[in-house]
Specification:
By secondary structure, this protein is α+β, with helices and mostly antiparallel strands. The chain has a single domain, classed as Nuclear Transport Factor 2, Chain: A, CATH 3.10.450. About 30% of the residues lie in helices and about 40% in strands. The chain has a 6-stranded mixed beta sheet.
């Protein structure tokens, strides 16, 4: 019984001490949706802070690396423990994704009609969500679909790196 009370007290204390670090950044309100045209850089509303601009620049760099199948750039953009939840609901590791892209099994030719873009900042983390149309091949399967994406960015060593993302197919 005494052990249980101590354990619960320790857990409660740890949770209380961690809460201030989880406070949402005042600038974390979602950005207004926008509809950039195909081929234009990813933008939400005009970025108001240098951090917002830096995250959007990282998103644009990531988009270009995906379009170019540039595994060297992706290796720099993704964290060491990066994961993707793909449109089929499978968890794909960094190594698996690099192999898929490097082999041509995953090859995105066009990302267009990016819209419904939101960004929330939490200290050294950012969550970006969007809806876009992708044309290409995922794991050997042709795709021409709308995908809703969630991208979790973390700031490490002075740069924004992608820790995880999820792509969900939108029903027609």
């Amino acid at each position: 019984m005494r052990y249980t009370v101590r354990a619960l007290s320790a857990i409660t204390l740890a949770a209380v001490l961690a809460l201030p670090a989880c406070r949402e950044d005042p600038a974390a309100e979602p950005t207004a949706p926008s509809r950039p045209s195909a081929g234009r850089p990813l933008t939400a509303k005009p970025a108001e802070s240098p951090r917002e601009r830096a995250v959007l620049a990282a998103m644009e760099e990531y988009k270009q690396a995906i379009l170019d199948s540039d595994t060297a750039a992706l290796g720099r953009i993704w964290t060491e423990n990066y994961t993707l939840i793909n449109p089929q609901g499978l968890l794909v590791t960094r190594e698996q994704r690099l192999a898929n892209i490097g082999s041509g099994s995953t090859d995105v030719q066009i990302i267009d009609d990016e819209r419904e873009i939101t960004m929330r900042l939490f200290g050294d983390a950012a969550i970006v969500q969007n809806l876009s149309t992708l044309h290409g091949t995922f794991s050997g399967q042709p795709t021409d679909t709308d995908l809703r994406g969630t991208f979790v960015w973390v700031r490490r060593d002075g740069r924004w790196r992608l820790a995880t993302n999820q792509l969900t197919a939108v029903a027609p």
